[in-house]
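Let us begin with a simple case.
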Amino acid sequence: MTTSQSESATREAAAALTGVETTARSIEEAAVEPAAGITGAQSLIRSLEAIGVDVVFGIPGGAILPLYDPLFDSKVRHVLVRHEQGAGHAATGYAQATGRVGVCMATSGPGATNL
């Protein structure tokens, strides 16, 4: 089996992320392995930076709190909203107005269902 162009593009995009290494184990299978010493929260924020996200809308709380430490050190701005629905609407409006990716964040449970 040969590697398709889309698979190659996906591997190249993954390799471009800071803190991520790609390893082709066989022609049929490729794995993305995180670099040692990086948390899931750091990986997510670095991924957002890598795709050009410059603002996220949301409310800190509960399960999402660990994302705010690497976000604080990032160039990505956080816009605090009063309700999760506001975050979803703000991200949608931002995307429509700018043509860029709109991102909203909320905690698990009721926070996520409010999006």
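The second case is a distinct protein. As before, the sequence precedes its structure tokens.
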Amino acid sequence: MTTAKIMIVEDETTVALDISTILARMGYEIAAVVGSGEEAVSSAERERPDVVLMDIGLRGRLDGIEAAGRIREQWGTPVIFLTAFSDDEALGRARETEPFGYLVKPYQIKELRATIEMALYKAEMERRLRDSEAKYRLIAENARDVIWTIDLNGNCTYVSPSVFNAQGFTPEEAASRTLEGLITPDSIGAVQEVWFRELALEAEGGADRDRPMTVEVQARRKDDSTFWAEIVASFLRDNRGRAVGILGVTRDIDERKRAEENRERLETQLRQAQKMEAVGTLAGGIAHDFNNILAAIIGYTELTRLDLPKDSPALRNLEQILKGAARARDLIKQILTFTRQAEQARVPLDLARIAREGLAFLRASLPATVEIRQDLPDGPGMVLADPTQMHQVLINLCTNAAHAMRETGGVLEVSLSRERLGGSLAIGLIDLTPGWYLNLTVRDTGGGIPPEHLERIFDPFFTTKGPGEGTGMGLAVVHGIVRGHGGQVVVDSEPGRGSAFMVYLPLLEGETVGAEEGDVEAVGGDERILMVDDEESLVRIGREMLEHLGYQVRITTSPMEALDLFRSDPSAFDLLLTDQTMPRMTGVELARAAMGIRPDLPVILTTGYSETVSADQARRMGIREFVFKPLALADLARTIRGVLDRNAGARP
């Protein structure tokens, strides 16, 4: 243990020697013995004692009290006053120097030792406290987070300098502000709720004394802008454990909050996409079976119509059956479009022209209370798209917008612009890669969409319209078409503010509109056709239709049997007409096997829906045509005749 150094300041030489002797016997080191205030100050600077024993009534220019004050102020050395008398004035002056002890002569040796030891202990505690305060102040003043303390009345007692970088205030400005000047009104309620709850728990005394209080607020900057901040605070306590104030840390979490909000938005969109995919899978299966039923209805109806005289009253009934079947077929096409399983005939397309044509078509059908405005400039670019489906997107969105304004009237605005998406502009467009897009926006001034409906508006059959006013497929079809074209639909809507549907489609540069292929004459022939479909009713009606056209037809419901027939005599058939979705062997697998035997065999692939193969994929395999069921007789005739004629023309 290090021996404490003690300096004695006493103008009575005998008394000074006595004290020196006593202290030496106690084991203390005597730093110096001086007899005046001036000597005491200079010796203290030179010797740096641990404790000074100071006679309060020194003679000379500096008395003991003034000398003690200088020593304490300059070096923080603890001082113990020694005096043979005491009066109120001297005590008052001495108290201002913050002495560590006060001994009135004569005093006991034990009393002297106890006073010195207490002074040494107190001095050590003060030193540790100063070091600790300096360390934590250094941390506080260099931290990015704002550190602060307040008393239980809400008065600020400390704010770290980092408040300037965080909020633009100096510590003094921040400390002088009320809570309303530092956080937004909405956040005050959250803070008060936590504050009152914690005070109640503190009063009960049963809660964790070291529990932190955490609350997220929107903090104000000096320029009145706001940012998200997290406050973590705990009670400051006195030596009896009573709460006397609060120590808090305010951290800027604005970037984290934006990331969380973006993640939540992406998760919502992902859940929506997964839901749509699941519904799409179900819808595709239903569409397949329903198309097979429709194919039989349409086929037998057309055959029956052909057998009736032109003046037969039954023809009108059959026409109504065909019209109903056609509407059902169109509904299935919408379902397949929604599930992105419908084949799309895409060509380079001038979207502005399509939009102008669609609006011209719509004008007559919209109420006079709806004003149409358009901003459709020439030349913003082209997209690779199916013209019919782009018409449908526009018609569905405009019809939906007009319905939102049916009672009050309003403005329907359609605009087209070229935009580059990337970085922050692509937030919310989770499936779009950065690049150039055409933005087709349909905006209305209707009542807007309630938040609880926004996540469901693209669900098939979801509608807020009354009975008979809508099927709930309009926006689902729009969603399916746009996603199928590599784009995305973004909705901006609030109740009372109207709605805007923004369709983003990838821009196609450097392309011209391709010419459409002319129709093939709908005639029959006498060629030999092998027809394969696992639905017996479809192969039977197919045979009757084809035989009516003059073809020689062999049918089977088994692709394995069809392959055996073909293997036994590859030259016996001029065309293979096969369904895609069949048990044990798909139409594509059958076509590959047959073309492996005879490469020049023309193949037509039919399907009720396309899940595993597209038209482009089928054609790359060598399949001549890829068509969707149900096919009307005229369409079937044109398709078969076209394939056979092209195949005959390709032969050497």
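The two ends are 114 Å apart (CA to CA). Residues 143-252 form a domain with the Beta-Lactamase fold (CATH 3.30.450.20).
Keep these points in mind for the review questions at the end of the chapter.
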